[in-house]
Write a structure and sequence with these properties.
The chain has helices at residues 3-17, 27-33, 49-55, 104-109, 132-137, 147-153, 156-168, 174-183, 192-204, 208-217, 231-240, 248-258, 263-272, 277-294, 300-320, 328-336, 350-355, 362-376, 384-398; strands at residues 22-25, 42-45, 59-63, 68-71, 78-82, 84-87, 97-100, 119-120, 126-127, 140-141, 171-172. The protein is an alpha+beta fold and 399 residues long. The N and C termini lie far apart (77 Å). It binds adenosine-5'-triphosphate and magnesium ion. The site of adenosine-5'-triphosphate (ATP) has 10 residues, from helix 7. Belongs to the tRNA nucleotidyltransferase/poly(A) polymerase family. Bacterial CCA-adding enzyme type 3 subfamily.
Length: 399
């Protein structure tokens, strides 16, 4: 077993010694069986939350109403969740109530896909009630039980299906695909923030086309904010995208560029997807750089305004769209060779200009902007004396 499981074993041992059952469950089990690295180890147990808490010294109630307790006794925190069933789902999202149960099978039965419904014991044996191992071997995503019912219970699962397809290079079982086709519209009941997380994970996955195929063919995309008009562009991306994007900024920059959005439209799209302001700003800047790259008009001013990180992202996006003839390293060199990388690095300040007799006000600001641009473009050396002379000439010409 991977060391993450070995490290967590004292937790399971403690719970078992008290007479309860405990297993590793969820993504870490699936990923281990696939030979993939794992992130967080999740533990499911027959012990009720209060029983779990009584067994350990340091615990945090991270989601105690859902049965989740974080155990801190062994270094990194481990999330332990009591076996539970869910019922209700009146609003196609959260269950109305969760009920704690003592049976592992019932707990696994509420999970979304068979590959996510496996349990692992500390001796390495696997408990597989729903043919998850068979699906894992077949590289298949299949809902636990009746897909129609499962998507009706929780519509987010449809987005989870396409993101796992993209992350794992798995196909989605035809009946599960049919369920998505029939229930796509329920996605509008789900909080945009949660759809956002799954959508981005899909495009960060190594095989985005695997997810996008089903996302498009089932019509699921239509029920995501603002995506409906872009069927053709998405279908194009599906064939062009041979690998995943490297981060979230790249994901949205790709869409903005592929959809040919104006700056205002980018803002609207990202607002509708409940994105953070920083992300919106970054995407605006990166999109501008993509245009510069695509039209082969990258100059010093553009690389300066874009900055290192967004420059790499913009070129990644332009390359994915087949619109770049630049090497990323060359663009970064161009950036690195600039005399300054921020206005603060100018060898002159507003104070200096005032000391030389220039009056404070908009003129002074304009003079500094002029100097900034001239230095970035290499027309002026970044030296105090040179810049002072240039500022005075600039203002005299204006006068
Ligand atoms: P990742 O590697 O991305 O974390 P994961 O499979 O661990 O993948 P999580 O969102 O961390 O996904 O959820 C942990 C487990 O909880 C899943 O493997 C699945 O068994 C169950 N699960 C999560 N979300 C749902 C859901 N919406 N419906 C049913 N079961 C779910
Ligand atoms: Mg997980």
């Amino acid at each position: 077993l991977p060391e993450e499981f070995v490290k967590a074993q004292p937790i399971i041992d403690t719970i078992e010694a008290a007479g309860y059952e405990a297993y590793y469950v969820g993504g870490s089990v699936r990923d281990t069986l696939l030979g993939l690295p794992i992130h967080d180890v999740d533990i499911a147990t027959s012990a009720y939350p209060e029983e779990v808490k009584s067994l350990f010294k340091r615990t945090v109630d991270t989601g105690i109403e859902h049965g989740t307790v974080m155990i801190l006794d062994h270094g990194t925190g481990y999330e332990t969740t009591t076996f539970r069933t869910e019922s209700g789902y009146q609003d196609y999202r959260r269950p109305d109530s969760v009920k704690f149960v003592r049976s592992l099978k019932e707990d696994l039965n509420r999970r979304d896909f068979t590959i996510n419904a496996l349990a692992l014991k500390t001796d390495g044996s696997i408990i597989d009630y729903f043919d998850g191992l068979k699906d894992l071997k077949a590289h298949r995503i299949r809902a636990v039980g009746d897909p129609e019912k499962r998507f009706n219970e929780d519509a987010l699962r449809m987005m989870r299906a396409v993101r796992f397809a993209s992350q794992l290079n798995f196909v989605i079982d035809p009946e599960t695909v049919a369920g998505i086709k029939h229930h796509g519209g329920l996605l509008t009941k789900i909080a945009v923030e949660r759809i956002h997380v799954e959508f981005v994970k899909m495009l960060l996955g190594q095989w985005p086309a695997m997810g996008l195929d089903v996302f498009m063919e089932t019509g699921l995309y239509q029920y995501c904010p603002d995506f409906k008009p872009y069927q053709a562009q998405f279908n194009q991306l599906r064939t062009e995208l041979k690998s995943g994007m490297s981060n979230e900024t790249a994901v949205w920059t790709l869409l903005a560029a592929a959809f040919n959005l104006s700056s205002k439209q980018v803002n609207q799209l990202l607002k509708d997807w409940k994105s953070a302001n920083q992300l919106i700003e970054d995407v605006q800047v990166a999109v501008k750089a993509v245009h510069g790259i695509a039209t082969h008009s990258v100059d010093a001013w553009l690389v300066y305004q874009t900055g290192n990180e967004l420059l790499s992202i913009a070129n990644e996006v332009a390359q994915k769209l087949g619109q770049s003839s630049y090497e990323t390293a060359a663009l970064l060199d161009q950036y690195g060779a600039l005399q300054i990388h921020s206005k603060k690095a100018l060898a002159i300040t507003g104070q200096d200009l005032m000391a030389a007799g220039i009056k404070p006000g908009p003129q002074l600001g304009r003079a500094l902007n002029f100097l900034e641009r001239q230095v970035v473009e290499g027309q002026l050396d970044n030296q105090n004396k040179t810049l002072l002379e240039a500022a005075i000439n600039y203002l005299n010409e204006k006068a």
